[in-house]
Design goal:
This protein has 118 residues and is α+β, with helices and mostly antiparallel strands. Helix content is 37%, strand content 19%. Strand 2 and strand 3 form a beta hairpin. The structure holds zinc ion (ZN). The site of zinc ion (ZN) has 5 residues, from strand 2.
Length: 118
């Protein structure tokens, strides 16, 4: 499958995630979606990312700012509801709060991050 086709599947699933979030008491604003190699290099150098193989470089990842009761939150247990839903939408979807999908809060956490890992 072409990258462009995967990007369109990803974008459609992001729409589903946004809708699900609003149905379940969350509000969202967009953080980053597409990212340049230059920006990714800065994130790796400053420890905000651990890879130069980020799916943001392929237009297959989005970071959301998640609000509950008008408050911005990075609470893992709270946002896990969205991560769990995200992973039901496609077998290649991963949530940054649980990269290895082991259902526990471990390793490098990137709670606002939702991606399709091709
Ligand atoms: Zn991200």
């Amino acid at each position: 499958m072409k990258l462009s086709e995967q990007q369109r599947i990803f974008t459609r699933n992001i729409a589903r995630l946004v809708y699900y979030a609003y149905q379940n008491g969350f509000e969202l604003t967009f953080g980053e979606a597409f990212r340049t190699n230059e920006q990714q290099m800065i994130y790796v150098q400053t420890g905000k990312s651990q890879t130069m193989n980020s799916n943001h470089l392929k237009r297959l990842a989005v970071d959301f700012n998640v609000f509950v009761n008008n408050q911005l939150t990075y609470d893992w247990e709270c946002i896990k509801i969205l991560g769990d839903y995200w992973e039901t939408l496609h077998h290649k979807n991963r949530w940054g709060g649980d990269w290895n999908n082991n259902e526990i809060k471990d390793g490098f956490l990137d709670v606002p991050h939702f991606e399709m890992n091709i």
